[in-house]
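Section 3.1: Structural characterization of target chains.
Under the original work plan, the team committed to producing a structural model for every single-chain target entering the pipeline before any wet-lab resources were allocated. The record below documents one such target. The sequence was received from the expression subgroup and is listed exactly as submitted; it comprises 193 residues.
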Amino acid sequence: MTDDPGADTRSQRERMEAGDPYVVDAEIEELHQRAVTLTEAFNATPASDGDGRRRILDSLLGGIGPGTQIRAPLHCDYGSNLFIGARTFVNFGLVALDVASITIGDDVQIGPNVQLLTATHPLDAGLRRSKWESAAPIVLGDNVWIGGGALVLPGVSVGEDTVVGAGAVVTRDLPGGVVAVGNPARVIRTIAR
């Protein structure tokens, strides 16, 4: 990687969407500002206006399945890289840094103040000063339960039916049908499926 964003002929957005290092430019900033405007509208819309909130989510998110409920506040970088399946419940305070895709399956339960963080930065101090970033996707399988305050880090997949305990920090993939807790999250048992 170089300090010269022009060394690659792809746009910074194309680099970002491919998961390659990129620098935020005007096009990416515009996408982010669109998401900020829509999330502010969603967060300000009363819960009693379910149709209005759903229209905002349909405009903001890459996809949202039927019967899915999201409680405000919701915070995301772009929204368009966030895909949520059917009948999923998202409690208060989800932070979804969707620089790369975040795919949430059907029937998922997400506790309050969960963070799904696809964004990452280089270890090299000079590259960080030059504002290089990158990201890796997150996938939550069907029927996953993420406990309150948990963090899921870039590039992690959580298998279906898995439970992640409150406050856990998920740093690597988890198989389906397990309970994982702690920092870093570790599997403590399997569960009946």
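The chain has one domain: 5-190.
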